[in-house]
Records
---
Amino acid sequence: MNYRNSNAVLSTGSVWTPPARGCSVLITEDYDLFGNNVNGEEGIYLKTDKNSGKHLVYFEKFSEWGEFSDESVLFEAPNHIPPMNQEFIDRVTEMIITFET
């Protein structure tokens, strides 16, 4: 697969925009995810946090989530969502707090 980081510049000179929710990503640095090193593992991109700039990624293989910086994530085709990823993201919604404490 062809992967690129979020800071990649396209041949046209324009800056590459963040991928669609459900795009496949590849982790490129050592990262301990509950006892599993996810370096070299493929995950499903969900979103980028506006405050931290980190990318939320789900790993179906481990049934776990992780947050990754730009430097440790390569994105596959930004607008391509594999059918298995689509099925997953169709079931995932952001948690909404309905009871203020």
---
Amino acid sequence: MATGQDPAKGKRKKSNMNKKNSAVTCNPFKLFGVINIKRNIFQLTFFALLIFSPYLFAQKALPPTQPLQNENLVEILKSDELEIINQPGDESRRVTNGVFRHKGALLYSNLAIQHINSNMIEAFGNVRIVQGDTITVTGDTLYYYGNTRLAIVSGKKTVLKDTKKTLTTRKIEYDMANGFAYYKQPGRTVDEENVLTSKEGVYNTTTKEFTYYKNVKLVNKKYTLTTDTLLYNSLTKWSYFNGKTKIVNKDGTVVGTKGQYNTESTQSAFHTRTTVDNETYTLTADSLVVDGKSNDGKGKGNVVIVAKKDKTVLNGDEGYYWKTKGYSKIFGHAYVRNVVSQDTLYIRADTLYSFENARDSTRKLIGDRNVFIYKSDFQGKCDSITYNTADSIIRFFRKPILWSDQHYQMEADSITAFLVSNEINRMLLKGKSFVITEDTLVKQFNQVKGRTINAYFQTGNKLKQVLVDGNGESAYYAVDDKQKNIGLNRVECGRMNLLFEDNRVQRIAFIGKPDGKLIPPSKIKPAERQLDGFNWRIAEKPTKAKTTWQEK
């Protein structure tokens, strides 16, 4: 039936019939023309390829610039919503709850605007940067510049965390390319042991070093440090400070201007004038090293150690103090001052040692080599000296010699001075003892010598009595009631007792058999005026300036 046939088959048949008809009715001249046109098109195409092929190959050889640009762009990894906004000169994307990745770092926020042309991101709400395995920065707002990798994070509480360290401030400028985080608003850094605050600061995430500026304060359980500028390495625990610095702990205070301090070992080194102060002593020097655990100190340059309990002051070029031992050593232009009542005793030596007695806070001073001693009422020199403030006894060794403002001189192998109420009460001379007093009336010298001499003094440091024990000899001038010189007494006796008044012998007593004579003034020979070994060395008497190294 004609109505049941497939229309497509009908058409296909018709088409075949047409093709067949075309073949039958084909004009050979027209067919030749078509073939000729196709040949011309092929030739034109071939020549065109020959002409333009260098340019086509050249375009394929050019480096692909677009992929490099894409590598520098901040990449969107995830978002709940993404809106593309195209404006003249600015192609941007609005990203909700997005995650970005750039150079290994991840950026999170509630809302972000990504500017494609400038490669910059503005992010708001729960902003977070995660860099590597340790560093995280959080805040309310983020401006991230992809070309320079600068992230500016701000908010009511902006936090940078790096392992066990946390920096909190209002705004952080984080140079992610170089690893520097800056803050110019008050910030607070916390680690396992320390809390550091400052008005400004920089954190180097590579070296783990913090640099703090302005009103810097470091606090931990052991101490508090305040300074103007502080560089703190959280790995080595060393703090380097510059500007007026103060360290306070339970044992004392350190004040300086430039140095370093270890927050773990409590070791400190100061490079400018610094003072350590505690309940027992004060140590000041141009440079200083202090052990915070033991409070032992070492100072160099114009060192001053003050023992507070007995008002003893040690000065020198270099000094050491061991607090647990109560022991000090100072050398190089070293001298000590001990203030008693209203007078001061000065002792100078090549090296000075000070030992504190913790039981009664008394002190023993030792001077070694080239010793000078100065007090307002007597002066001296020797090779070594000891002074004990507990009993006020001064011992002079190795060729000691002493002078008084009352015109006397004493020499012996060793001399011991006993002070009472800050005045000399007794002098004990042992070995080759020699006492010389200047008699201003006759303008001569009275002399006593022997193996051992005890010299006693009255108020005002005036010589009162001399006891000679062993090999005693004396040469003194006698005067009558009218204060007229009547001659020179030369006496030898094993033991003698001489009483003095105004540096003149008033009475003499001999124990044993004396051998003596009175020589009239007119018959005194020059050699008889002096005992063997006489040497008036008043020119060597040290002054205060010499004892304190103020003059040579």
---
Amino acid sequence: MGFWHEVRRDFKTVFEMDPAAKSGLEVFFAYPGFHAILLHRIDHFLWKIPLPLLPRLLSHIGRFLTGIEIHPAAKIGAGLFIDHGMGVVIGETAEIGENVTLYQGVTLGGTGKETGKRHPTLGDNVVVGAGTKILGAITVGNNVKIGANSVVLKSIPDNSIVVGVPGRVTKKKIIRMTTEEGLIEVMDNFPDPVSEKLEDFESRLNELSKKIDAAEKQKDSGSNGKTMKIYNTLTRKKEEFVPLVPGKVSMYVCGITAYDISHLGHARSAIVFDVIKRYMRYKGFQVNHVRNITDIDDKIIVRAKDENTSIVKIAEKYTEEYYRDMDMLGVSRADIEPKATEHVNEIIDIVKGLVDKNYAYDVNGSVYFDISRFSDYGKLSNRNLDEMIAGARVDVDEKKKNPLDFALWKASREGEPSWESPWGPGRPGWHIECSAMSMKYLGKSFDIHGGGADLIFPHHENEIAQSEAFTGKPFVRYWLHNGFITVDKEKMSKSLGNFFTVKEILGKYEPEVVRCFLLSTHYRSPIEFSDVQLNESEISIDRYYSTIIRIRDFADSKETAEGDSDAEVLEEFENTLSSVKSRFEDAMDDDFNTALAMGHIFELIREVNKLLDTGQSGGKIRKIVLKVKDFLSETGGIFNIFHKTPEEWYESLMKVKNVGLTAQDINDKIIERQTARLEKDWGLADGIRKELEGKGIILEDKQSGTSWKIKVG
């Protein structure tokens, strides 16, 4: 960084940080903080030449004029802002990163009299409160906030909030988000008790209002008389679900950007909202499900260049790949699956409306949403606008009024696809497409908007801003977000290179196993990717199919029809079945708790196996056992598992486990073994069994004959 670059950045920072700064002349002549930094830039330049005496003399003059003492040797990055800076002291070996803010009375001091490094090092985007002392050769990480009058004696990790004497870390949180400009990192804000109480009060009023609505509409809601609660990201509470139109649910879920093969994180989101839709329909609601495909985006353009093909072909290729993967996983298609390029006219109409209402501005053919004009910006992610702006790390873009303003329309570049618009040829920004398509198919306000937790900010936050600014109405009633899949505690993502594609996973595990694995954790909780847990899910699914074989054999047995059953045992099991049915729905009605609901299903599987172990028989027990089979099939339909015959299940397992035999090969071996046994050639019969066991095939001898299974887990 050159001298003049740093001075220009320091000068611009004053306007970014102090809204009272009205003109360049005012800053140049009347801002002691800027004077102190400018004098230090000169001092430091002379110090490095080196010149004797003069740098120290200028440093003393600066302290006399501004009340701020900066040693000429201190290394300071561009964008330092000293606010009300009387009493600020920066020592000789201190180092300060870019975009740092210091308030009055801050000391970056040394400890001891030894030579060498003895003053602190501050990372980028650090904010240090008034009166704080940071002492010694310690390191304060990037994006750290230090509260007023703290005394910091130990190094502080990135993204921390520090308070007290001695300074202690009270919060460590960072939001990383992708915008049109690339990666932005945003610090969380200090807790504000007053603001939190007001938000809580507002949330309680909103909840009360919805309860009143629910009481009025319960009769016609289509939910079979039971209350359903959903966790709403917007209010950060579980709320009673009351659709805008009784008995009908409008749901929009963000789909993929079609530029690459889908990974397990995409699969989780698709499966979560597939199950939510299926359960809503099970409860009697008419669900209109919309899921978009982004087929124009920077990533698609880059991939097309890399593969030397057209953007259309890239989007088509990876959309087909996505559908193929989702079909394999049993994810049903949405009722409407719109593409961004098919809705450019609707997008232009919204952008034009936002410009007309002064919520957006045109710069050289690109149109940006002005977040300062939307007072509720940050309400979904619970972020304070001033803190987001102060913490944002993004290259300075002279075109934008604010670093967090986002593109609604992008001016065309050479070689990129474009559409004519009132602002010249261009293409839609990422966020606007979802507003346009959701409102076209579901209306200006609708019930549920879903997606991964990584979309809360900025994508869904921006959707709210542009949609509500355009219509003047609440955009969505309930915001639902699924948690991440993690690998070694880090989010699975393409940017980190730690992802597993759906195709890779399905090469090792049967699709029902993957669904069971993803649904065995509550949708809002993170899942740690683990072969151990996938193997456990495989065992669980196999337990179901093994139970179905037992039920089928039991129901078909002549002994079952002729026998009799214990009335007390029968009544107890009837109660168990009734209880499981009720608890299954209670779990799903409580924010779609699939993990608990599946636990109830496998509890019933255990209980029916215990019942079969008792040796009870007769028509009545046969009837109740078949009821269990029907219930498992019905609930399995909600999760889209348990939909095969046992034979189909084992044949499917053969493929993923690379057994190397067909079902016919195994049956031929069974016939060969039976012949050997009839001829009392026990050695050959035992050898065939062991040969098949070596390939993961288990034989089971029954009265009705020999059957086979695939070893699981």
---
Amino acid sequence: MSQIYPEKYRGKINAEARVYQQLNDLRSSHWRFFHSVDIARHSVKKSGEIDFVAISRSALFTLEVKGGKLTRRNGTWLANGKEMDESPITQATDNYNALRRHLKKAKLPMLPGGHCCVWPDTLLETHSMEWHQSSIIDKRGMNDLLRALETAEQHFRDEATRLGKPTPTLSEAAYTALCESILPDIVQPLTAGQGVEADKSELVELNRSQSRILDRIFDNPRIVISGPAGSGKTLVAYEACKRLLRENPHWRGAFACQSIYLAKDIQLKVWEDGISDRLEVLNEETMYPFYTRNARGIDLSKQEPGSALAIKIPGYAVDPSSLKEIDSKRLLDFVVVDEGQDIVNNVALLTFLNACTKRGLAKCRLLWFEDTQQAIAAKLASGNRRKLYVDLLDHDVLKDCFRYRLDPINYRNPAQIAGKAEKLLGITTEHVFDGNIDPQVTSWVTEDPLEALGRAIMQLERQGVREKDIMVISITGKSAGILEKGLRAGGKNLSYESDVFDQSTGRHHPAGHVRWSRLIDVKGREFPAIIMLDLPDFKDPFDKHFMYVALTRANSLVIALGTREQLLAAKLDPSS
């Protein structure tokens, strides 16, 4: 029998699981297989994972599995008719090259090898310069997997001979040493801190896939784009701003959102990209000052404190350029809206944003991103702010917009976190990002969440997670009063993130501090590690949406603090 590590399959029941079972059932001691191999310090591959590494005494090669029916049309690869982000051949090549570099650096024996693509649901009927038939194991090859592996092994040895490279056959002792060297060096448990850093690297690579969404939507001058958490709306929205500026050198535009803190994240990117002279970042506090300064020539920051100004502002359905008192030349040529679900029914924000554009929201170049599952701002608003939200507006500024729904793919949240969030709402998305930490979600049963918060912070610090990578989220706000007084927990000062910043201080994180936030101020944002407290009791149907928003802010790990009843209601395992 062959040997396979780990001895038990852990993962989704999919094509990879079927291949694992067939490899495990091979009646041959010639092979050892390593499943789900993560390479430490890897910076080239889109993903840090190789599906399988196959090692014999004569060859070492990777097996990259792709389920579904694969086809190629005009140079584009499709899986079950849907366009793939990357050629499976290119991905397999990159993964093998990354593994080879790692082995060479570790001074391990270099056997002939390469990459094999395993397509168990596809019958390959065509030939191409892009691949060698012996390195493709299709549906037909899966019927005699042992023979297919032997064919690949011989192909790699023949290629090495043709290129004048050595083709050693290792002694049993050297073979065992190679396998034992690979297992602890490549497949190694990461600390939470190491996992966070590995996740950051992978997410940078995934950005390239998400940005391709722009190519599908950019030809529509007025479009509403909807998609679930993790589908990359904020990233694509910002990339859309940059493309509009590149293609229209004389235009001036805005990235607009409700949240001051999401606007802060974007403003820092705008400064780093050197486009602050042409791209405004507008939020609920800056839209009106922008209008008065640019349309009316009045700088509110230079007015005497307490002075009353009666400045007329057009309604949200009025074209500002039609009013004589408005100088529209300095207003915006386009607007890209993020978190639009919390602006669309807010009369004040619609009015302010409309007044900032040359032709108004009903006519300007507009890209509007939203997720109705995250429409929580009206529910969290209180007092006079609640009155700004109306169920039905007199005029729908989005009525003539083309509507596009993003594919249900989660690029930003690792699989376990995404799965927990989706379970709350009964939705399903494809998970592209597996993450490098296990478990990614842990639940602590506690009657005193603030005491447990200190222990959670200390545990993350022991595991190497940096202070600036931790965000504490109060979902219901129950503990906000205590937190606002400057609570210390786990030896750290808990502080609310400052909304006053400039280009030099925007990314500064004071030593000895961990950030905390109310739920409303983390919408649209991402953090490596989330600690959730003040969980809802789920008596209100909207509570599941609050939990969904909180969970999907995490890129690496979540610690949930609550009573057993709260955790069970949130579909989180109280024993984990």
